[in-house]
Write a structure and sequence with these properties.
33 strands; single chain; alpha+beta; 26% strand; 21 helices; 7-stranded mixed beta sheet; elongated
């Protein structure tokens, strides 16, 4: 009898179980082959992701420097320090190390390491703290790159800012691609809990720093301009103002500042156009002479200083009787200049203003520039020709006006403005930004004729407040009624003054404007322009060609050759009696401004080839940065600011003997945390 008959159920179950095991084995082998052969690379990458992580290493942004290499914006590397109290093993030792390395009090350091919180953030510190803290268990260090502006708020509107790692406004935004650099990457190890393994770096691509910008700005002149403008706004009770200094031959902007409501208005000198008033008269004159429609000797009868045209009466402040066209510009006769402009066709008058750059953006490489407003002739009314001749029905920016006067100063060429002098690329290449002529507006001979007219404005016209003791100045004042709430405001004016010197070979064009003041441009804005000229002559670092200036000094009343200078607060260069102070809204405006320059006094006489004067560094401890900078500038010293806050000391320190033109570092007592 067979022991395993065909129908034995056990045999069937054994074979079924064997088949199941074979199928399971085959499935395991197939899955193993799939995981190792087909999906092997993917699983290997997943394993690495659990054990390593990739982080981006930010790149330092490039620097922005002034024309002398003074840093205006730079990237500062700091270390952020945080403490995880629960990870600390020796609390007393950790507290001692934190106190010594970070300058914390022992009490605070003990509170931090004994805190019941999981994390304590202590702030950002200089990189010098890293060696002392990197091996302390429970203390975590993070690299931080912070955009720093060593000169404080100086030219911040032009520079812009950095937000979330990107340039915002000004040159930071325009040159973002150059400045931002290229970030690097690092691959770091992680432990099973996901935390980084300190010091375990598997791979790293180093970051590449951004390129640098070298500007045409002069940091010292910029500081002086800002202080002079602030003093003038305060003295005249203006609501704001602008000041601009540029080189007529290159279009380089050396200084630019705007204030509105007592605060920095950033790019107001290119974003906020206004009606200019009589500063437009030289361009009406230029168009008349260029077109052959008038001569300087042509006479105009202004009568009692009133002329009614198209139902509107134009008034003169003081001009009466018969005036030549030359004299009409010098005494700023609205009636005579408006009547002279009738010889021009609307198209000729429009083209004359357009050629000088009005009604179109200058092309300065910063965002937000306004083109102003110059309507086409087919949009004019019967009053437009007279209005445009004397600076109404047109809106212009301070930069447009300064460049137009620069064309008169340099022999008739309208220059493109320059704010960037050189671009330094990350790969080491250097690219200079060359001056560019936009167009020739008038001939050299005609520009010379108009300059001589403008010299008369300062010598014996409305611009006498801008006279220098030793140089001829060519300038023009402007007073336009302030416009608000749909109408002109009675008794409120935009008072402006623009001039260039020395008139024989101009090196600087200086524009000043005060907003909503109760006075005329020559009396209020003229002294600001003169103060900037004096400050430029006094500053060792100003880009003036002093050797050429010494050949242009003119004799004073005694016949001796003299040069113009600024009155230093603590050095004796000569004593002069100031002119009678100008009274503005019941206040005397004859006090010295914050730069140490008396904005409303006659200039003292001194040699242009100034001797190097030895001065002592004053004790500035406790002063604000503005007051301290003002004091040093008044001594003829250059200033560099380390950080914001009250001054704690200087380098060289107080009492040290230095030479005029030296740079003094202002230090703040505020910790960088």
């Amino acid at each position: 009898m067979s022991r395993n008959p065909a129908g034995d159920p056990l045999r069937f179950r054994r074979r079924a179980l064997l088949g199941v095991w074979l199928l399971c084995g085959a499935a395991v082998v197939a899955r193993a082959a799939q995981v190792q052969l087909v999906q092997g690379d993917a699983w290997a990458q997943a394993a690495l992701a659990q054990q390593r992580t990739s982080i981006e290493i930010p790149a330092p942004r490039g620097r922005i420097l002034d024309r002398e290499g003074v840093p205006l914006a730079e990237t500062r590397e700091l270390v952020e320090v945080g403490v995880a109290p629960r990870e600390i093993r020796d609390r007393e030792q950790a507290a001692s190390t934190l106190s010594e390395a970070l300058g914390l009090s022992r009490e605070r350091a003990r509170r931090v390491v004994s805190s019941g919180r999981s994390w304590e953030y202590l702030g950002a510190f200089p990189t010098s703290v890293r060696p002392r803290l990197k091996d302390v268990t429970g203390v975590h260090l993070t690299r931080l790159l912070r955009r720093d502006y060593p000169q404080g708020q100086l030219a911040r509107g032009i520079l812009g800012s950095v937000r979330d790692g990107l340039g915002a406004g000004g040159l930071e935004q325009t040159f973002e691609d150059l400045l931002r650099g290229h970030p690097g990457r690092a691959v770091l190890g992680k432990d099973p809990s996901g935390r980084l393994r300190g010091g375990q770096v598997f791979q790293m691509e180093a970051p590449r720093a951004g390129g640098d910008l070298v500007l045409t700005l002069d940091a010292d002149l910029q500081a002086i301009a800002k202080e002079s403008l602030a003093a003038a706004v305060d003295s005249t009770e203006a609501t704001g103002g602008d000041i601009l200094v540029l080189s007529p031959h290159t279009g380089e902007i050396l200084a630019a500042a705007s204030l509105r409501g007592g605060v920095d208005a950033g790019l107001g000198f290119i974003t906020e156009p206004v009606e200019p008033g009589s500063t437009m008269k030289p361009f009406t004159l230029a168009t008349l002479l260029r077109r052959g429609r008038a001569s300087l000797a042509d006479e105009f009868d202004v009568g009692e200083g009133r002329w009614t045209q198209c139902g509107r009466t134009i008034h003169d402040v003081s001009a009466r009787g018969t005036l030549t066209l030359e004299r009409a510009v010098q005494v700023s006769s609205n009636v005579a200049v408006a009547r002279a402009a009738e010889a021009l066709t609307p198209l000729e008058q429009w083209e004359g203003l357009r050629d000088f750059g009005f009604g179109q953006a200058t092309g300065l490489p910063v965002p937000g520039e306004s083109s102003g407003r110059l309507r086409r002739p087919d949009e004019w009314t019967c009053q437009s020709r007279a209005s445009l001749a004397i600076g109404y029905e047109i809106s212009v920016t301070p930069l447009q006006v300064a460049l137009a006067y620069g064309a008169l100063a340099n022999g008739g060429r309208l220059m493109e403005p320059r704010i960037v002098q050189e671009v330094r690329h990350p790969d080491g290449r250097r690219e200079s930004v060359a001056p560019r002529v936009v167009r020739r507006v008038v001939s050299r001979r005609l520009a010379r004729e108009i300059t001589e007219v403008l010299v008369g404005v300062v010598a014996d016209g409305t611009g006498q407040a801008a006279r220098l003791a030793s140089f001829n100045v060519a300038a023009k004042s402007g007073t336009a009624r302030a416009f608000g709430d749909g109408a002109y405001e009675r008794g409120s004016f935009y008072s402006s003054f623009v001039g260039y010197f020395p008139a024989e070979d101009p090196q600087l064009v200086i524009y000043a404007k005060l907003d909503n003041v109760a006075g005329y441009g020559g009396a209020l804005a003229g002294p600001v322009t003169r103060a900037m000229m004096e400050a430029a002559l006094a500053s060792q670092g100003t880009p003036l060609r002093f050797a050429e200036l010494s050949d242009l000094t003119r004799p004073d009343r005694s016949g001796a050759a003299t040069g113009a200078s600024v009155r230093f607060a603590a050095t004796t260069l000569g004593n002069v009696e100031p002119e009678a102070p100008v009274t503005v809204r019941g206040r005397s405006a004859g006090a010295a401004g914050p730069t140490g320059v008396d904005l409303f006094a006659a200039p003292p006489a001194a040699s242009v080839r100034r001797p190097s004067l030895s001065v002592r560094v004053p004790d500035l401890s406790g002063m604000g940065l503005r007051e301290a900078s003002r004091t040093l500038h008044a001594l003829g010293l250059r200033v560099r600011v380390e950080s914001g806050g009250p001054v704690s000391g200087t380098r060289p320190r107080a009492g040290s003997t230095v030479t005029t033109g030296d740079t003094i570092l202002l230090r703040s007592g505020r910790a960088d945390r």
